[in-house]
Inverse folding.
């Protein structure tokens, strides 16, 4: 009952200004009605309809019918608009519409196949490309042989509590117009993928003490960022000599391919013009990548990996840490912005979605949810109560990187928890969602030796590799925190 009262109060609060406007509108129409009718007609209306002439009754009925329906439609429209409280309706937020100049190459299947099977070596190629482009600055943004671009201002010497990062979040309703960089329509080419044009938190600026976001859409991200992965795939497929260099060796000569690309940047016009750090020039989505470490009684702790479904829009069919996803609200209109605009909440929701298969958390159910707690099913609520609200976990931040293949930034975190709390909350087994290949959830020992072994795997998503490298770098600190759970 309390939840119903709270929901009604929230709706009333949103509509009170509109209802006041409607009241003044009704008074205005009534005054206009009195003025237009012949003298004495209004008196007869007050006395009774029986004394009105048929002509007056007819126009009276028409007037009030039109008034009723127009006011109702107007209020419903305003009520709908009130559910998008953060200024999300603008050019960037409109669902993407294919224009007449969009092209769909006949060989797009071959290009998409290359994009999927060569994702790892092409990401390494793009890391080498940006190293060359940055010149002397490369030592600032690249660490050893990691195929990602690090943000040095947000690469801490010791892990941070995630709350510190949440405190750096900044929001603006103003979203710059989407830049249509290409006439290749990724959303059309990716028809066979399970993609959804959801609301995303679009990154505008990253500073040492602040990260600014605004409204965005996932399809706009695909058409201004993920299109870069398609572009480089097409460049490789259409230049077989360099395609063979990339595919015929365990250690391809990336320097040779980079030199070729720099001399022929007409093959990658989007890439050549894209500044990795100019986030507003694209609809840049933001990712979260979380390594889950489970402490076990009288046994070594374990970490979790999965093989991603081929239906995924990004990094399909590859080994990755789980959960990993896009920073976005579950509610498609961001109605719970104050709650969901949080890295902590995003990571917890991704865990519930990807490792507990909480069906209620799926976005198709979200439009019917008016209380934030109702987004979760029984398992999700139990997990939040046992693990999160009772503070039976450690969630720490390790660093921020940019994926060089699509220029998507993402934070790298570690979620540590004890198996006894997980058992009480979720039962004996984790249940994966469609995003994971059936039966491909892997449990590995959380140890330096195991981390080093995983770092050598060629099927590992490059950003996942960066996360494991950071975990290895901070292993002693993480082990200390894990021991205190």
């Amino acid at each position: 009952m309390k939840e119903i009262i709270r929901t009604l109060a929230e709706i009333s609060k949103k509509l009170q200004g509109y209802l006041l406007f409607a009241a003044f509108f009704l008074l205005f129409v009534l005054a206009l009605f009195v003025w237009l009718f012949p003298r004495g007609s209004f008196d007869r209306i007050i006395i009774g309809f029986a004394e009105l002439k048929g002509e007056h009754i007819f126009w009276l009925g028409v007037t009030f019918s039109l008034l009723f329906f127009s006011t109702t439609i107007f209020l419903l429209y305003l009520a709908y608009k009130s559910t998008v409280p953060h200024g999300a309706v603008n050019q960037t937020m409109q669902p993407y519409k294919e224009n007449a100049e969009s092209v769909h190459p006949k060989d797009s299947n071959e290009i998409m196949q290359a994009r999927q099977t060569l994702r790892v070596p092409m990401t390494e190629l793009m890391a080498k490309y940006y190293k060359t482009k940055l010149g002397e600055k490369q030592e600032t943004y690249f660490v050893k042989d990691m195929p990602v671009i690090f943000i040095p201002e947000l690469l801490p010497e010791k892990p941070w509590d995630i709350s510190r990062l949440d405190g750096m979040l900044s929001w603006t309703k103003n979203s710059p117009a989407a830049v249509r960089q290409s006439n290749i329509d990724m959303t059309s080419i990716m028809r066979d993928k399970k993609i959804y044009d959801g609301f995303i938190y679009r990154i505008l600026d990253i500073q040492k003490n602040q990260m600014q976001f605004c409204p965005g859409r996932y399809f706009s991200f695909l058409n201004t960022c993920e299109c870069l992965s398609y572009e480089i795939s097409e460049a490789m497929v259409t230049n077989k000599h360099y395609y063979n260099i990339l595919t015929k060796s365990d250690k391809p000569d990336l320097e040779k391919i980079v030199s070729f690309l720099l001399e022929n940047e007409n093959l990658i016009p989007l890439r050549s013009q894209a500044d990795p750090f100019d986030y507003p020039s694209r609809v840049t989505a933001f990712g979260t990548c979380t390594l889950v470490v489970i402490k076990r009684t009288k046994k070594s702790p374990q970490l979790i990996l999965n093989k991603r479904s081929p239906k995924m829009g990004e990094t399909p069919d590859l080994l990755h840490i789980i959960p990993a996803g896009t920073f976005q609200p579950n509610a498609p209109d961001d109605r719970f912005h104050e709650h969901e605009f949080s890295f902590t909440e995003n990571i917890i929701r991704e865990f519930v979605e990807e490792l507990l298969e909480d069906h209620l958390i799926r976005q198709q159910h979200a439009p019917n949810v008016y209380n934030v707690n109702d987004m979760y099913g029984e398992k999700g609520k139990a997990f939040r109560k046992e693990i999160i609200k009772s503070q039976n976990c450690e969630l720490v931040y390790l660093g921020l990187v940019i994926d060089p293949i699509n220029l998507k930034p993402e934070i790298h975190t570690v979620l540590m928890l004890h198996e006894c709390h997980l058992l009480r909350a979720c039962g004996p087994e984790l249940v994966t969602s469609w995003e994971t290949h059936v039966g491909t959830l892997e449990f590995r020992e959380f140890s330096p030796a195991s981390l080093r072994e995983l770092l050598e795997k060629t099927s590992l998503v490059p950003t996942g590799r960066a996360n494991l490298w950071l975990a290895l770098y901070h292993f002693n600190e993480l082990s200390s925190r894990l021991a205190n759970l």
